[in-house]
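Milestone M4 deliverable, item 7.
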Amino acid sequence: MAAPAGASKQDIRERIWNYMESHDLADFPRPVHHRIPNFKGSYVACQSIRHLEVFAGTREVKVDPDKPLEGVRLLALQNKKTLLVPTPRLRTGLFNRITPPPGATKDTLRKCATSQGVRNFSVPVGLDASVQVDLVVVGSVAVSEKGWRIGKGEGYADLEYAMMVSMGAVHEGTPVVTIVHDCQVVDIPEMLLEDHDLTVDYIITPTRVIATGCARPKPAGIVWSKVSCEMLDKIPILRSLCEREKQAGKDVALAAEPSGQRPAPRTGRRPWGAPRWQRGSAGRPRSPPQEEDAQLAATVCVGNLPRDARMSELKRALLWLGAAPASLTWQEPQRRAILHYPDPAAARQAVSCLQGLRLGANTLRVYWGGRGTRVLVGGPQQQSHPHHPWGF
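Output delivered:
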């Protein structure tokens, strides 16, 4: 499949997503738009990695948490390899090490390989941990036979690799594998590639294994000039790496900043405010502002539920996506559900997992209740974000 002349990365993404949906190649979760698309036959495609020497000889494998890579995560566990999975959106660190319980059965290992298992059977890996990744497995939206890759546009795979380089966990010779449907292998114009874009050495599809022989250099570390203060504020481990490299005498000037200067990261309350301390119905006092803010920030509202939707259907979907809340309030007359999570980080992770979720014929609208307002982050009226060099 050739990209149209003058096509952008986003044009290629949309073409792939639309093609997979219209030809019924996509698999749960659907629709695949704005995701690393899962596809029918992904589990079978994953099995082919066993025949690669780069997999057979590895001890530590980093595999992205995307659904189509679930089969690789399972193979790594079954072969008693150390499995590292990036934390969602890097909010709580870079890696989680998956640690199945002693004497884990095949069924338990299967659960450990799912997104829910990654949350329940893992321990965080800190910057000071001794990590030497032998193989990197990433998801892709599109990839070329030359090894050029396009992700879903958020830039996390590129940033994760650059961070691994900076902490010494990978080197230029560490092989990178991606697993995609055959229709995702397309011609990508070289002019679309940037220095921070990650390339791949092997492409596995349901029908073939492609050794790309890619000679284009992989990212040599974090390009700090493409990192914003907002990113540094959102990703604590990136902030820690920045401090380390600064102490080592490296230039860590961020985007649009004078060399050597960086505003201190925000602390305490965020500037966009919190709900006012008001009195509830019947004159009962509401929670203090700090407590109420925390409660709202850990709440997600799911709307546009089908009229015949059942709570059990939503619960199954949440469990499957690894976004099960601590409790759920079902508001049938309003055709919505309120999901209550332990903390704001869990709520934001759930919001990311639920984007584009459908029940029946309805695409659900997902609202995050934090920061004193409800923010629409999913559903048919979702707006795209301005392009950032790292995709954020």
